[in-house]
Amino acid sequence: MAELTERMNPEETETAKLRIRPLTAAFILLGGIATLIIGIAISVSHGAADIALATVWEAVFHFNPDIIQHQIIQEIRLPRVLGGVMVGASFAVADALMQGLTRNPLADSGLLGINAGAGFVLALCFAFYPELPFMFLILYSFLGAGVGAGLVFGIGSLAKRGVTPVRLVLAGAAVSALLVALSEGIALYFRIGQDLDFWYAGGVGGTNWLQLKILFPWIGGAIIAAVILSRSVILLSLGEDIAAGLGQRSKFVKLAGMLIVLILAGSAVAIVGSIGFIGLIIPHVTRFLVGVDYRWIIPCSAVLGSLLVVFADLGSRMINPPYEIPLGALIALLGVPFFLYLARKERREL
Question: pTM of the prediction?
Fold first, then answer.
């Protein structure tokens, strides 16, 4: 940031300083992590049968397999909540990174075909290889996410004026609709609709410890890589000319960034299914709170994204007990109005 500040005039330098709020970011990280711990405890204790927080503590730190409540916490609720933490962080960081790399405020893995691509390949796996191990499902999910993103960016760049935010969203909507239709056709023909319903509705109810153990290194490593790449994303988000002037290899940064995005989005879809709007809401809220420095945006987005999914999952179980509202539908209630607001704002700025 020091090199960039030197090239700014005094007015631009002052504006940049005003838009970077490290104290607010530090408060969000510390307060968010504390709130997340509390949210995890509350979410684990609530369900079809409420369990006292003291019992939750005993089940986590003094597990007794002979106690049914301890089994419920360890085998069902705790993996579910921790899966929500990982999914929220993955989607939020992936889309924050994508928005910085593409300079597109509407970039979202659900809107740009990444989720639909991963879901389409998973439908093929369920149809032709129903006994495929979860590790291979993850790899194919990454592949599908890459295919979806490639189709969207390829179609969006065909126009004479090149890629624009609105054109990318329109291409993403078309490609997503096509891939979802193909997935549903496969589900009907091979009678695997019940298996795919979970992926379409989105939810962390089926998360288990094996999935978490397999995906944690991928997600953890990708988030760390995103933090390392954050300084380069700051420069790239200001324009390729500025980045090139400061000696940055933009093509390498974009390639590394998109690989991180595909790992995070593919992993999240493998756990939770097709849930959109997490990465659309959280990065914008984070940017509003902490400013334009991606060294703060990425870790803060991870914390706030985890909070959103954990509390949304808790709400999905508490609104109409003992039944659950699909997690994807609940988050969409927040995401759709937010998307319309951003689209209207983007249209005014064109």
Answer: 0.86
